[in-house]
Amino acid sequence: MRAGIIIIIIFLTLCLISGQVLCFKVIGCSGGSVMFKCMYKSDEQHNSTPLNQRESNDQLKGKYFCRNRNRDCKPGISTELQRRWVNNERFALYDDENSRFFTVFIRNLSREDDGRYTCGNNQKWSRDVELKVNNNSSSCGTSVIRSAYKGQTITFSCKYEHKFKTHTKVFYRVNGDPVLVLNSSQSSQSSEEKFILSDGQKDHFTVTIRDISEAERGVYLCGVERDRADKPPSEKSNTHITFIKEIELKVHGQITSVQVEAYISKSVFITCEFPEEFKENKKFIQKDSSKEIYVEQNQWIHYDRVHVFDDTSAGVLKVFISDLTAAEEGTYRCGVNTADDHLLMRIRLKISQVGDHFRESVAVIGESVKLSCNSPEKQQLIKHICKENEEKICQSISSSEKQRFEFSDSTAGVYTASISNVSLRDAGVYWCGAETRHEHLTSVSLTNKHQLTLTMPPVIGREGDSVEIKCSYDENYSTEVKYLCKGKCFTKDAQNIIRSDEDHDKNPKISVKDDTELNLFTVNTTELRAEDAGKYWCAVRDVFNLPLELMIIMKDAVIHEASVGGSASISCKHIRKQTQKLFSRGDQPSICIRDGARVSSNKRINGRFSLTEETSAGVFTVKISDLRAEDSGKYWCAEESSGSFIFTEVQLHLTRDSFCQRL
Ligand SMILES: *[C@@H]1O[C@H](CO)[C@@H](O)[C@H](O)[C@H]1NC(C)=O
Ligand SMILES: *[C@@H]1O[C@H](CO)[C@@H](O)[C@H](O)[C@H]1NC(C)=O
Ligand SMILES: *[C@@H]1O[C@H](CO)[C@@H](O)[C@H](O)[C@H]1NC(C)=O
Ligand SMILES: *[C@@H]1O[C@H](CO)[C@@H](O)[C@H](O)[C@H]1NC(C)=O
Ligand SMILES: *[C@@H]1O[C@H](CO)[C@@H](O)[C@H](O)[C@H]1NC(C)=O
Ligand SMILES: *[C@@H]1O[C@H](CO)[C@@H](O)[C@H](O)[C@H]1NC(C)=O
Ligand SMILES: *[C@@H]1O[C@H](CO)[C@@H](O)[C@H](O)[C@H]1NC(C)=O
């Protein structure tokens, strides 16, 4: 306080020493702005400085306001233009030749701006200006960002020191130029108007903007009109405006209420996106007229079937509603608390019936797998696949993984999602569904559930030959006993348990090797028989590797001759009962595994191909009619049971019949 008084005394002294030099004081807030008039006809008792009495400075042209006038006159601004604002960084100047003053506007004040300035008209007159920048006022220099949606009404609050109670309050807009929007001494403020200033409260006034549109986007300033003695300005006093607060208003597209359709017993994933500046603000979710539930940040919070996650880094509120029933239908609101209000998004959730789609799929490591999905909507929506996490929340696939996922086009309401180069981490539960995007909200209604299990690539051996089954294990287990078993190890169903520590001399069919350097346990089985086909598991203690299928190709191939134009009936033996029979064409038997069958027990007729089973005789027959020369080649008969295949090679030789030879 004392320092202040001393400063004021020094200031007054400076103003007086200069005799005829006029001097006035302008007070600003650090972080705020000021606007004042530089008068060239004095309202005070002094006369203006005579022409040519002051030193000239060639750098100054026309009207100017600056610091260090006699040196570089910086920082500051000057102009020879009239009736328009000119800007130089934080300074702006407006000269109206018809008036007896020009206006100076300075934004974003800081303590460094504190000091003496000069304003004037070069060569003609000048006045000294003492700029005081306060940093100690509790209501000084706050700058805020506010967001509003089109059509919304928003209210700003501006705090001022109590001593300004009876002063005029002003509200400006800076859109390049500072423009007065309204002030508290303006009388007409009907409730129909867009801007309403209300100054009835204690130590603050409010400005309400109604029915916000794109045009209201921008920066606003609120402040008080004052004179140097902080008395309410009068006709005579040299006034200025101290802007206390700067408000940046952002305008966002309107949030209409959004309808989301989801399905009974399935789930829906909704993402509500809020404006950037509310990332850290408290979010909430509300159903119908129940109480708002405020959400913890950056963790999943569970309320019965509703799971909520406030992702502060992305600025979104994720809502996952699982195991939907008709009771979940209703209106949900996701919202965020703002400084003195909140923003809401309204979601009308409609629950419909859709078929029950659950599939278990087996994928081979390193290969690709296709998951089929239904799209109940007629229009083409954005296809989506997600994977359940430990909390059974279906999260979208990370962008780095996404390149392995691909969707087919939908035909007849069905599309496939394929995952390529399947690896261990892909095992789990997947859901597919359709994604709908609105301006601030994305929803994914899930339709199909897939349980994906993994297996190692199959090992294919020929009857009578040998195969090696390789089991890699964790290096921690190098000294432990390893097992290879058919069926499931350590259960009653387990068969043919082969141990790494056993003496296999008695069984010359099998040899084992445990390479503890490579952490690889290898079993070589010779004299393969059809019965060896099946699922094998490698295990150490009670830790199982992925299973692998040993598939057998029968030693004897079927050689069949037929003539072009005629038909062929190919008879294939099968060993096991209750298996699926398949018939495929290709160089390798694996064509049968990869959906390549021409005919099968599931699809007995396919064009010229048909399949009949005579189970009691242990054979099935494939008939190919209307034979063509190009039908010659290699085919495979296969029998399959739970993924376990036994193949028989078929060679079809076509000869020209006598009729053709005669031609
Ligand atoms: C703020 O500081 C000024 C001087 O910089 C002083 O005159 C004034 O009394 C101070 N106000 C308060 C409330 O401390
Ligand atoms: C205001 O000035 C300060 C330095 O005093 C600067 O750091 C800040 O970026 C400026 N703000 C604006 C909005 O120009
Ligand atoms: C303004 O005051 C605050 C504390 O009241 C202080 O932290 C800050 O450094 C001051 N700024 C200046 C420019 O003096
Ligand atoms: C308030 O607004 C009226 C009408 O626009 C204007 O005449 C008056 O000068 C303004 N007062 C201040 C302090 O800006
Ligand atoms: C398949 O994935 C493995 C890792 O899981 C990677 O090392 C390999 O390069 C991938 N292959 C292809 C063809 O992308
Ligand atoms: C398995 O062992 C037999 C006899 O020791 C050997 O002839 C054969 O090459 C081995 N098989 C493989 C695939 O290594
Ligand atoms: C192997 O041992 C290390 C160190 O004891 C341990 O961190 C790791 O989890 C173990 N790996 C397995 C698969 O048990």
General description of the model:
The longest helix has 16 residues, at 2-17. The chain has 663 residues and is mostly beta strands. It folds into four domains: 1-249, Immunoglobulin-like; 253-455, Sandwich (Immunoglobulin-like); 459-552, Immunoglobulins (Immunoglobulin-like, Sandwich); 554-655, Immunoglobulins (Immunoglobulin-like). The chain is built from three helices and 52 strands. The strands form nine sheets. Strands 35, 37, 38, 41, 42, 43, 44, 46, 47, 51 and 52 form an eleven-stranded mixed sheet that branches. Strands 2, 5, 6, 7, 10, 12, 13, 16 and 17 form a nine-stranded mixed sheet that branches. Strands 19, 22, 23, 24, 27, 29, 30, 33 and 34 form a nine-stranded mixed sheet that branches. The structure holds 2-acetamido-2-deoxy-beta-D-glucopyranose (7 copies). The site of one 2-acetamido-2-deoxy-beta-D-glucopyranose (NAG) has 7 residues, from strand 13. Keywords: Membrane, Signal, Transmembrane. Its main location: membrane.
Q: In short, what is this structure?
A:
With 663 residues, the protein is mostly beta strands.
**Name given to the CATH architecture of the largest domain:** Sandwich
Number of helices: 3
Task: Give the class from helix and strand content and strand pairing.
Answer: mainly beta
Chain-averaged pLDDT: 85
Query: What hetero molecules are in the model?
Result: 2-acetamido-2-deoxy-beta-D-glucopyranose
Q: Overall 3D geometry?
A: elongated
CATH homologous superfamily heading of the largest domain = Immunoglobulins
CATH class of the largest domain: Mainly Beta
Radius of gyration: 42 Å
Largest sheet: 11 strands, mixed
Question: How many beta-strand runs?
Answer: 52
Question: How many structural domains in the coordinates?
Answer: 4
**Cα-to-Cα separation, first versus last residue:** 123 Å
Assign a percent range to the helix content.
under 10%
As for the CATH topology of the largest domain, it is Immunoglobulin-like
